[in-house]
Amino acid sequence: MSADDLHATGVTWDLGDLYRSPDDPALRADLDRASQRAAAFAEKYRGTVNVPAGPDPQWMATAMAELEAIAEQAARAGIYAGLRHAADVRPPAHGALVAMTQERGTAISNQVLFFELEWLALADEPARRVIESDACARYRHYLASLRRYRPHTLTEVEEKLLEEKANTGGRAFSRLFDELLSSLQFDVELDGQRQSLNESAVLALLYDSRREARHAAARGLTAGLQANSLVITFIFNTLVQDHAVNDRLRAFGDPMQSRHLANEIDTATVDALMTAAEAGSAVVHDYYELKRRLLGLDVLYDYDRYAPISLEGNATGWHACRDLVLEAYRDFSPRMSEIAAEFFTRRWIDAEPRDGKRGGAFSASTMPSVHPYVLVNYTGRARDVMTVAHELGHGVHQYLSRDRGFFQQSTALTMAETASVFGEMLVFDRLRRQERDPKARLALLCGKIEDTFATVFRQIALTRFEQHLHAARRSEGELAAPRIGELWLQANVAVYGDAVQLTDDYRWWWAYIPHFVHSPFYCYAYGFGELLVLALYARYQREGRAFVPKYLDLLAAGGAEAPATLLQRIGVDVSQPEFWQLGLTPIRAMVDEAQTLAASLT
Question: How confident is the model at residue 414, as a pLDDT?
């Protein structure tokens, strides 16, 4: 395996399906045309929705189709700018393009904002007639879902002010965080040599088989975050307070309420999820005690959590990763594999780690008239293979839901994580079936257990940290970095107990997690998705091929129906607290299997 294959060298995306370049005349022409269409839309439709009898359903359907087309055309330039910026945050021109498209997009959105506000102001009975009409069937869920925001919506003037100010407020601080983290170099001293690594590379080193390498990576990561803690802490304080101001203005009583509303989920269901996960944390302690023994360590520190159990087979080349993921998808559904293959053959994926590139991974749905794009930072680790499977799960989901249109192609975050985690399960299951060597099987199983812990227990801990962070910012005022570190440790100790010794360095590791900045209270959706998938996968194993079309229909529905409605169609009721135990039980079974397998090898 060559170094180029190991690190996916040269595997970059082609954004030409959006625009040929930042100077493509079509980019500004789209913004100009969207602005013109928005002005014409306002002239035609202002004052026609909030009328005593309500709008004619066919008139409303025509207006919605026009509005959707305007929104998609206006978004195209911003999506292109965002993807180009994620690929390299360093050139000032990339940031300038993001700013320009945000500003133009805001102006266009404000031109048509009246329509949504008139719809929200409409009385319930005429609104019901529109929603239930055949003419508006395509937009039924979208229109009904919008009305849930009635108690939290301001006047048109106020909404316009908030939207425009966001470009120099919250959005600006989010961009600053991205540019800062993507530009950082972390100094790591190993084997007597000092090297500067970007975020993706230093995080990858935490999976190294050498303990001294992991420890060096932990020290380097911490030092880099500490050196920039003044700016990062200010960003966090500003955005958490910005969230509080928005909650106050929009009459949200709890910091998580707006996220629950967007996710179409009630507080009781999320509380049941989090309580079940926290009550089941003993399985985490049992596993890490096993891992400590397997590694032959007296103490398992935080930087030991991702140490490989086996020294063999830790590196997987990019092409081998591609083949494995596509084959695993094909075992389940040839259609899924065909869609996923397009990301590789048509350059819809950017996998090469580079300085200036955004860390982590994501799949951008873009718009129905184009296709999704995936970003990963591939370094050949087993976890990277699962990340590719995860993001391609998102990509397939987004591709299948395109027929729902721009307004309804995306689903709530809770459902959004279903396809991604299911993709990981397909790859794990294929590897598990193929592996015959007991040591390699144990290593594979341990890797899956750790991934599951990271998706369930760790993400619930991150959510608890956010709850503590937002509560402390509101009650104590601006928080110093050490105080945030205390809150971070408090939430993490609850997960790891005495099984993992959290070092002083670990107090700083809240500072690089982008979800806290971009999507407050996103993280519980990962736990939701993982436990849901474990339950769904058990059903697939029982039903076999009969489950496949049900699952693909679930993905193709996108956001055209509420998550609870979609899941009820396949016999799942997430409102029942006992449901979450269906997902936790397989986790305990995996740990029990690992303990038994480890005992047989001694």
Answer: 87
Q: How confident is the model at residue 319 (pLDDT cuts 50, 70, 90)?
A: very high
* Distance from C-alpha of 480 to C-alpha of 325, rounded to nearest angstrom: 44
| Average confidence score pLDDT of the chain | 95
**Cα(79)–Cα(71) distance, integer angstroms:** 12
Architecture in CATH for domain 15-168: Up-down Bundle (1.20)
Beta bridge partners of 363: 374
Predicted pLDDT at 576: 83
Measured distance CA(254)–CA(520) in Å, rounded: 12
Looking at the DSSP bridge assignments, the partners of residue 189 are 194
Widest distance between CA atoms in the chain: 78
Q: What are the extents of the domains in the chain?
A: 15-168, 184-310+456-518, 318-453+529-560+579-601
The answer to whether 15-168 and 184-310+456-518 have equal CATH topology is no
> Could you tell me which of 145, 139, 70, 61 has the C-alpha nearest to residue 107?
70
- Residue 384's pLDDT is 93
Instruction: Return all residues near 333 (Cβ < 8 A) that are at least 6 apart.
Output: 548, 551, 552
CA 40, distance to chain mean position in Å, is 36
Q: Which contacts qualify for 242-251: CB closer than 8 Å, 24 or more apart?
A: 242/169, 242/170, 242/173, 243/470, 243/520, 244/470, 244/473, 244/474, 246/162, 249/154, 249/158, 249/162, 250/152, 250/153, 250/154, 251/151, 251/152
What confidence tens digit (pLDDT) does each residue in 239-252 have?
999 999 999 999 99
The runs of H, that is alpha helices, within 401-480 are 413-434, 438-455, 457-476
Whether pLDDT at 312 is above 80: no
- Which residues, including other chains, have CB under 8 Å from residue 411's CB and lie 6 or more apart? 397, 401, 557, 558, 559, 563
Structure tokens at 448: 């899956």
Tell me the pLDDT tens digit for each residue of 458-506: 999 999 999 999 999 999 999 999 999 999 999 999 999 999 999 999 9
The pTM is what?
A: 0.90
Class of domain 318-453+529-560+579-601: alpha beta
Q: At what angle do helices 438-455 and 457-476 cross, to 10 degrees?
A: 30
Domain 184-310+456-518 in CATH: superfamily?
A: Oligoendopeptidase f, C-terminal domain (1.10.1370.20)
pLDDT at 314: 63
Reduce the DSSP state of residue 585 to 3 states and report it. helix
Is residue 313 over pLDDT 70?
Answer: no
Q: What are 499's two structure tokens?
A: 């099984």
Three-state SS across 94-143? HHHHHHHHHHHHHHHHHHHHHHHHHHHHCCHHHHHHHHHCCCCHHHHHHH
Q: Percentage of the chain surpassing pLDDT 90?
A: 91
- Containing 188, the helix (H) or strand (E) segment is strand 186-190
Residue 158: both structure tokens together: 């106020």
